[in-house]
Amino acid sequence: AFGQDIPDRLFDWVLSVIVFQHIPPERGYALLRELMKRLAPGGFVTLQFALYRDPALAAAPGGRVLMVEGLPVITNDAALNALPKGEMVMFDYDLTVIAAILFSAGVVDFELTHTDHGGFHGATLYGRRAPG
Q1: What is the pLDDT of residues 15-59, one digit of tens each?
Q2: pTM value?
Q3: Which helix (H) or strand (E) holds 36?
Q4: At what angle are helices 25-37 and 95-104 packed, to 10 degrees?
Q5: Is residue 52 part of a domain?
């Protein structure tokens, strides 16, 4: 039966596209660490994360990083506390933290491509854990 826990076994491929961006980073980083514990040697990852947004989207809930005149500006959106339960939110993640989690899990072959969903910028990450 499907539950809320990740099965305690190894997987050859971990795929997550347009999922993490709706999970608060404080929970998402822990979830990513758990998923990486279950990535089999030689296994692959395909992961998409929102990373920052255009200034026009600064008021959208969930924002952490804006790009203003080519430089990142860190924000802390207090409006998140006032959202109704179940409200859809786009959260920005820190690519440095994501890379640290992947690298510490042994993901050695790593590349990314840019994504832009209407001014919400991110990346799809592709990687492979070192064999055996």
Answers
A1: 999 999 988 888 899 999 999 999 999 999 999 999 998 888 877
A2: 0.84
A3: helix 25-37
A4: 20
A5: yes
